[in-house]
Every structure is written in C-alpha cells, then in structure tokens.
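pinging the channel bc i need a second pair of eyes. not urgent but kinda urgent?? the chain im working w is below, pasted from the shared doc
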Amino acid sequence: MSLTRVIALMLCAAIVAGAAVYYVCQKNADRLEGRARRAESERKTAVARLATREAELQGLRTDAAELARLKEQLKTNAAPAAAPTGFYLGAQQPVYVAYGTPDPVLQSFIKSLMESNQDPKAKGEAIFQKICAACHQRDGMGKDGTAPPLVGSEWTLAPGGERLVRIVLNGVTGPITVQGREWNLPMPPWRDNLDDGAISAALTYIRTQLGANNASAINAETVAAARKDLHPGPETASELSQISAK
C-alpha cells in the first residue's frame, strides 16, 4: 500500500472520529441546553408563584391590619362618623356598656378600681380614659360632632366645681357655649353608675391634671351634696349658670 493511500486512510479515520466526537458533544450540549431551558422555565414559574403568593399574603396582612384597627377602634370608642352611644369595657372579652343605663358590669369595674391600691390620681385618670375619653378624647380637647373640650373649659374650671358635678350626675341637654363656641350635644347622666368617690376622682383628675387645667380638686362630699338635689332630667346651661360658686 502506497504511502499516499495510507495517509488518506488516516485522514479519513481522523475525520470520522472527529465527526463522531462532535456528534456526541453536540448531543450532550443540546441535552444540557434543554435542561437549562427547562430549569429557567421552572425558575420563572416558581418566581411567578412566589410573587402571587406574596401578593396574597400582603392582601391578608392588609386585611388583618384593617381588622385589628377596627377592633381597636371599637375598644377605644374612636368611631369617626358619629358620637358613640356607649363604650367597651374590658380587654380580653369587651362588654358593651350603653351610656346613661345602669350596668352591673360597669358598676363592678368601677367598684374594683376604687377599691384597688392605686393612687387616687391614677384612679381618676383610669375612669376618665375608660369613660370620658370616648367622647371628649384622651387629651380632653373634644371633637366636632361628639363632645366639647374639657381642657380650658369654663364649665370644667368654674370655682367650686359644683356645676361640673351636676353635669356628670344629671347629664346636660340643649345648647351650651364652651370657649365661645356653641355645642348642642346631649350628655348622658352618670348618677346610677358612678358613686361619689368615683366622680370625685375623675373630676379631680380633669380639673387638676388634664392638659393645662389647674383648678381645685372636687371632694366626695361635694358630689354627695349635689346628688341629694334630685333633678327631673338633664341639666341645661341656663340652670347651671344659676348655681353660684362656693
């Protein structure tokens, strides 16, 4: 066999071997590329599912936050649309107490609070924040359409405090001017649910500690004396104005 033929055969064998290697490599490359495409597709699908799940979770979080806000609003009596007709008492299982209605749950709560070892000032603040703040707001500045302010009010700071005591005992109705502005919102009586000590503690807190108020304290004897003077219905501004300061 001539040298030329041998060389030709070797070249042919090399070409065939090279083609076989190329075929195998190309096949493997195609397989790997297919796997990569599938992996990328699966990755995109997983990302899309995660995004959908995150959107669902965000919606749930938003709903949960709104529900929590509404529950807290009920507990703190912060309804923005209208003056509340009552308030919730208790933290774990709140009980709704209507204004101006004798309620054993509220009476029990007040009795327990007054018999506790808390400082008298703390008792007054606790009663204010649970009952009075529902309308007059926690800072005592009042709210349009709900209740007038207590901070700086001439009715709150009047010498002696008997007018304020009578408002709490008997309620008030009709127009009343507070700091030059007329309010015409009824306030319910608290005679049946708050005893003399509780009213004394709450009003003393309002007159001496709430905001910039700096009037004298109101003792339980003043409340007891006013309680004896039974009033046929809610007080009016004209009636209260006739009470002389003591």
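so The longest helix spans residues 3-76. and Confidence is low (pLDDT under 50) at residues 77-81. — does that match what u expected or am i reading it wrong
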